[in-house]
Amino acid sequence: MQYYNKSQEYTLTSLNVKEKQGLTNTEVEKRRAIYGKNIITSKKKIKPLIIFLRQFKNFIVYILLFALIVSFLTKDYKDSAVIAVILIFNAFFGFFQEYKAEKAIEALKKYSALKSKVLRNGKIVFIDSSEIVPGDIIILEEGDKVPADARVIESNNLQLLESSLTGESTAVSKVINSLKTNLSIADQKNMVFSGTLVTKGRGKAVVTDTAMKTQIGKIADSLSEVKDKQTPLQRKLASFGKWVGIAVIIIAILIFIVGVSKEGAWSLLFQGNYTDFLIASKVWLLTALAIAVAAVPEGLPAIVTISLALGVRKMVKTNTLVRRLPAVETLGSTTIICSDKTGTLTRNEMTVRKAYINLKEYEISGSGYQLEGKITNNGKDLPTKEAFIFRIGALCNNSFLQEDAKQIEMKGDPTEAALLVSAEKAGMDTKSLDKNWKRVGEIPFDSQRKMMSTINKNLKSGKEYVFSKGAPEVILNRCSKILIAGKAIPLTEKTKKQILNKNEEFAKNSLRVLAFAYKEKKGELEEKLIFVGLQAMIDPPRDNVKSSIKKCNDAGIRVIMITGDNRHTAEAIAKEIGIKGKSMNGLDFINLSQKEKIKTIKEVSIFSRVEPTHKLEIVKLLQEQGHIVAMTGDGVNDAPALKIADIGIAMGIKGTEVAKESSDMILQDDDFTSIVESVEEGRGIYENIRKFINYLLSSNLAEVMIIVIAILLSMPLPLTALMLLWTNLITDGLPALSLSLDPKPKGLMDKPPRKPEENILNKKALISLFYVSAIITIGVLAVFYWGIIAYAGLDELNYMQKIQTLAFTALIVMEFVRLQTVRSEYKIGMFSNKYLVAAVIASIGLQLLLIYTPMREFFGATTLNITDWAVILGVSLVVLILNLAFLKIKKKIPYLKE
User: Fold this and answer.
1) What are the residue numbers of the active site?
2) Nearest in space to 147 (alpha carbons), one of 214, 88, 102
3) 320-345+541-670: which CATH topology?
């Protein structure tokens, strides 16, 4: 049914809902059973079979398939079977990695579900937008994203940006009356549509269509799918892996050429005897292929995705939702955090403590949103005739107090809620004010105007009044009179100065001050107002914010406070929480020359009376100086600054949906401490990725070097192709992946941020990597050489099986030694990661299973005795000691020190 050409009354009746009551819970359940969840079905779903089959479209798999074909053609069916099994295991592990990454990212999308304000059972509640059903009455305010198609039933200057649906770039004003038939979507001005944005005003609408029946749902199938982009780190590693792969393939080809030359098999090829050539060169061909498989780090990008996604899931538990994976990488590089004051550095639990009425100061007792308290001047209660300021505060207000189970619950902006509480303390019943004062219009708060006004009709007299609140200096400039003892008299410059001095006095005591004014509706609505007074409220700093600021200072991160509040209030709070630096008014800053701005931005850490455009300018200037900037914001006008910042951080509680959509992160508790914890988590994730790469590459390089050096020294081949493939499977698999779950290293916030352009493996890390690879290579070859001497008397088959099994097992043991030494570099305990412990035990168990069961026949291995194990463990201990010694030496050599 089309509702734009129907009246409000008809729409509500046909949807069986009452305007003041909304739907009941029982009715919601019935409708959900009929209409389902309010979700646009995505064409892109996780399909396990597709992910599994995708594993066979892989360079490594191509190499293994080639090795399988070679073994089959040379009638070595035993090798063929083992390679086939390894191929399937490799595919399953690749599937596990990719599927886990996909599921983790899918879970993140669920975390960031849109929230909506809905009237149900006569009360306004916040719910996930997916829970909305036809007939729900939704409350729309500036910054909201519309959750479903709906018919407007109340509009207070309600304007929406519908470009996502209609292509129109200008906001559309919404009306409540019915319209003529056969209108395009762009002309249906009494309808709001799913996915569009509220840019101004507020209103109510009754939901007519949800999910795939909405206008955006109908065209969902034709919408182009957004391709998943790799993070910068993934792109770096993919490129790095490509070059490593090329280098390894060149080495593998050289190994094959040298090995075939040793066998003297080239003559067979030149004679055209291809079958005999293939048989003669098979061992070297498979070895070269196995080297390529073992050494190419094809799993790096997948591991990075899993590490980032799992890290993001950890952050959710600490009230931080990361909406884009690249933000996790950027967090570790953050050099400056630009933070709002109210609600982020402070508790956002406003309580009005002072009032200035009739040029007299009043004390207001009580705290939080409890209604008990008194308003007194020198012990005398506030006279009723002087309570008008509190009525203005309650009427020029879009928040409300809701009593539930004998608890007072605040809904809406905390500042406005504090004004409702002060009105209650003045003896007013704020819940029934609209019975005598009907709101007929509103000029919403604007961050540039710094004020808000409502037009209310007195139902007894029939007269309409303008009620205004805002920044004291702004309101005073729009006033021509002042209310003294119930009479409006001219506002003199002397009185203005007296009021501004009181405002400054309040602000210096960390109080946030609002001014209040009114007039009968005549002429320009917000001009020639009558000044009534001030209300000053306190918003104390959050408990842990001071220690979090110190942690930032220790970590080389500068904190800049950016607030719309008075300069004195900002300075008082900054001093209390430990933000050091000069202070400046936003307007003064923006009027400086470019050269002066660059100089100022290095010195000023407290910006007051800031407008959204100022935020944008500050971010750009800091970025031009080479800084990585995190910026907080909550309003519609903050969106540009959030988008341009390296890390845009939206407020989860007071933030608009527009701000959230523009952000990289959402603070679900609006707490500055959560930002700092996220930066630390981001640094930890990055270090775990570095750890994994260091372990993987040092182990893989050792495998290549063992073969190359053995050939150069004319030693027998230390490892068969199957042994190399098995080693790759059990050491590069779950143990390496489990490193991403390591706890954060200590001292992460005791060093400056890393540079974004810094390579994940710098020169110092590469020196360490080559050293460790060399030690492992020497250790394995030492065990191998001992075996050559100790078992020289055996027949050739048993001799080769014995010495290769020694090298094979020594390599695996030493790689697990390396696994722990790379962790000890970060001072992480051996048993601190239960997943890693389980993975290592499982891998060692698989190796023992291979050696001591008939499985060994497939790998050309044999059993090891106590003496063999003593040699392997003894040499591994030496490798461990040399590794740990190098870590200590590194700390004393400035060039090697990280």
Assistant:
1) 340
2) 214
3) Rossmann fold (3.40.50)
